């Protein structure tokens, strides 16, 4: 009996890790936007939804397949983000953070409302690409190929992003430019451009996650709002603005949620917030955040 | 964060006030029939009873001639936002100040429950078309409740019973963790046990769960014959999608206990094809249904759900009763409604029982596979007709309001 349970547990751990990959992608985008730009982007969930919808529409009306969508959609969503930053967020950049929070929250509601109006609330279906259909029977579970791909792709993108920001010269400019804009501008660096591009990149990650999600979840207007609050909690747990923290916490919380789903499913949507409360009480800056 | 919370609260409150205020226009006038349709205009159930429920009521009023008791019939509509407190404040405004005689539409059992309480106090009719719980004609029955279209008992009897009788004895439930899911699971479990089956496991998944893979793995390990999805909308779609992806559908049957045409359309035929389900109506079931559904589609842009058809049918039956009894007094009208058999494209072999339950023939249908479909609206194959008295449970003596 015991070994069967152990097998089941392995399955849950793996499934948790897969969900954690989604959380990692989304919280990474948020962490970049918050950590570097100090903008609380409540529209991240809506942009994730937008990514999934663009992938659906591109396939249906232009025959753009999944693999092309993985590249094209993040670019499109990133462009939307760039326009948002340039024309909506920048004018209020010097106001209290609350303003950008409310602005992006309002935008999220508008985008979601518009999509409900256009496509209804029932959702649309997007097939798993032919190359990733099927799966492998592991000793403890059946692992669909697409789920394995989710882990690989997310971890690669997350690691790449972390490396770029923390280890390259470009990342150094970025961090310096947002830390001390006046000084960097004096060195001749175009800081506003860096800010816009960073915002675009953070948002593009949401678009990428949207494409990844389209084949496995129902593509529906409320898919973003369902996941957004959880992702915010993850960013808080990881430490506001910590890039590596967001990734590790995302993966970790996926596992915690997966285990909860096994032992006490009723609490599975609550457990992350419970962890958040505990972390905030014990370490207010978050697990990986720097103490202010 | 405190200021944020305050401003958010302020925004929510003003939203509620605006929503309520928008619905209050006219003062009461006697001898005039005024109907309210409360629906979900922008939430998760907007497709199954949102604008479409309003359109269905409009069509019913137009087909009736637009006038009752010699005066034009008025229609007011509002968005319940699926929130019981908002629904009851709108209902109160309608029946107490605006002279609304009956409230229809009503998706989500919690919303219907709230409205039903207000209407009982005001002695006005509650014409429920969208909700699934059977509580309105059992535990919380009252003389002014009318429950049209379907309920959890009919779904369980229609879908579960034949499967258990065909030898699928072991059942595993993935249930939406709120009142509707619990009610559906409870009723279905009873049907399973009564027919010699057993429930080998139950998972209560929170409403709006995105990822069902963990539950699917547990279902797989349970050794059940059938995995029953006691949930609705996107939860059902996501659960089924995941079940297929993880190979569950090759090992055991999956039964969606509540699937609307809009959900069936949203599912990949490769995933959903072959699944049996129970519905109160299918647009393509015969000429009468097709006729009406075509008119509905022209106005609304998509085919009707059973709830849309139910709203039309309930509204028509109500207006007929008003005209026949010569008054809009709810106590008189409800007697007339119960004394007359509803007969239209939706109601077949139907009667409105003394407890307010509208009993009619239900359909057992199968979702078509891709190769069987002519176009995007061609989704179901009708397998059999389930007579009303087999689908719905008998009336409780304490709910006999004859």
From TrEMBL, chain A:
Keyword match Transport: yes
One GO cellular component, as annotated: plasma membrane
Membrane topology recorded in Swiss-Prot or TrEMBL: Multi-pass membrane protein
Transmembrane segments: 6-32, 39-58, 64-84, 96-115, 146-165, 186-215, 227-251, 263-282
Superkingdom of origin: Bacteria
Pfam families documented for this protein: BPD_transp_2 (PF02653)
Keywords for the protein's UniProt record, in alphabetical order: Amino-acid transport, Cell membrane, Membrane, Transmembrane, Transmembrane helix, Transport
Subcellular location, record wording: Cell inner membrane
GO MF term list: transmembrane transporter activity
GO BP, one annotated term: amino acid transport
Similarity section: Belongs to the binding-protein-dependent transport system permease family. LivHM subfamily.
Protein name: Probable transmembrane ABC transporter protein
Automatic annotation (TrEMBL), chain B:
CDD domains linked to this entry: PBP1_SBP-like
Keyword Signal found: yes
Keywords: Signal
Residue stretches making up the Leucine-binding protein domain: 32-369
Superkingdom, natural source: Bacteria
One Pfam family of this chain: Peripla_BP_6
Signal peptide start and end residues: 1-21
Family in the record: Belongs to the leucine-binding protein family.
Descriptive protein name: Possible ureA/short-chain amide ABC transporter
């Amino acid at each position: 009996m015991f070994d069967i349970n152990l097998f089941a547990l392995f399955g849950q751990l793996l499934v948790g890790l897969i969900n954690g990959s989604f959380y990692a992608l989304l919280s990474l985008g948020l962490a970049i936007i918050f950590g570097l730009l100090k903008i609380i982007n409540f529209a991240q969930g809506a942009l994730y939804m937008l990514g999934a919808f663009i992938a659906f529409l591109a396939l249906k009306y232009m025959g753009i397949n999944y693999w092309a969508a993985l590249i094209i959609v993040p670019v499109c969503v990133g462009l939307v983000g760039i326009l948002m930053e340039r024309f909506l967020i920048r004018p209020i950049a010097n106001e209290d953070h609350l303003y950008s929070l409310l602005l992006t929250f309002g935008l999220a509601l508008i985008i979601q409302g518009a999509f409900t109006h256009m496509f209804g609330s029932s959702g649309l279906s997007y097939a798993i690409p032919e190359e990733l259909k099927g799966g492998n029977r592991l000793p403890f579970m059946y692992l669909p190929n697409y789920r394995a791909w989710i882990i690989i792709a997310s971890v690669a993108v997350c690691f790449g992003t972390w490396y770029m920001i923390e280890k390259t010269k470009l990342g150094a400019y970025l961090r310096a430019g947002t830390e001390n804009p006046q000084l960097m501008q004096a060195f001749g660096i175009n800081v506003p451009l860096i800010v816009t591009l960073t915002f675009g990149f953070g948002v593009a990650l949401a678009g990428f996650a949207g494409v990844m999600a389209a084949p496995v979840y129902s593509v529906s207007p409320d898919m973003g709002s369902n996941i957004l609050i959880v992702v915010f909690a993850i960013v808080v747990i990881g430490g506001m603005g910590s890039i590596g923290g967001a990734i590790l916490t995302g993966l970790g919380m996926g596992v915690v949620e997966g285990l909860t789903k096994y032992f006490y499913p009723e609490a599975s949507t609550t457990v992350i917030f419970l962890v958040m409360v505990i972390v905030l009480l014990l370490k207010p800056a978050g697990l990986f955040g720097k103490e202010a | 964060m405190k200021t944020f919370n305050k401003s958010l609260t302020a925004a929510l409150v003003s939203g509620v006030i605006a929503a309520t205020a928008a619905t209050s226009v006219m003062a009461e006038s006697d001898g005039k029939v005024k109907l309210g349709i409360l629906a979900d205009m922008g939430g998760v159930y907007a497709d199954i009873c949102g604008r479409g429920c309003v359109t269905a009521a409009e069509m019913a009023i137009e087909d009736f001639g637009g006038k009752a008791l010699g005066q034009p019939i008025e229609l007011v509509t509002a968005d319940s936002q699926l929130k019981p407190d908002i629904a009851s404040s709108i209902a109160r405004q309608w029946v107490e100040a605006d002279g609304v005689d009956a409230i229809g539409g009503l998706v989500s059992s919690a919303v219907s429950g709230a409205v039903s309480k207000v209407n009982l106090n005001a002695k006005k009719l509650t014409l429920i078309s969208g909700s699934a719980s059977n509580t309105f004609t059992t535990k919380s029955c009252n003389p002014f409740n009318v429950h049209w279209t379907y309920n959890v008992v009919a779904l369980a009897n229609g879908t579960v019973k034949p499967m258990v009788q065909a030898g699928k004895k072991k059942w595993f439930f993935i249930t939406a963790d709120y009142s509707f899911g619990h009610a559906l699971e409870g009723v279905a479990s009873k049907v399973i046990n009564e027919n010699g089956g057993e429930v080998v496991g139950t998972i209560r998944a929170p409403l709006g769960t995105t990822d069902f893979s963990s539950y699917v793995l547990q279902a797989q390990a349970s050794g059940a014959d059938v995995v029953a999805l006691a949930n609705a909308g996107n939860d059902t779609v996501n659960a089924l999608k995941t079940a297929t992806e993880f190979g569950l559908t090759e090992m055991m049957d999956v039964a969606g206990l509540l699937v609307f045409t809009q959900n069936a359309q949203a599912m990949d035929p490769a995933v959903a094809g072959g699944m049996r389900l129970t519905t109160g109506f299918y647009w393509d079931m015969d000429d009468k249904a097709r006729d009406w559904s075509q008119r509905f589609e022209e106005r609304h842009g998509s085919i009707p759900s059973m709830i849309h058809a139910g709203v039309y049918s309930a509204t028509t039956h109500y207006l007929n009763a008003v005209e026949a009894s010569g008054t809009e007094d709810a106590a008189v009208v409800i007697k007339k409604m119960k004394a007359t058999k509803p007969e239209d494209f939706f109601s077949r072999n139907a009667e409105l029982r003394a407890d307010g339950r509208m009993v009619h023939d239900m359909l057992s249908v199968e979702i078509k596979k891709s190769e069987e479909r002519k176009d995007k609206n061609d989704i179901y194959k009708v397998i059999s007709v389930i007579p009303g008295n087999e689908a719905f449970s008998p009336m409780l003596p304490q709910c006999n309001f004859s």
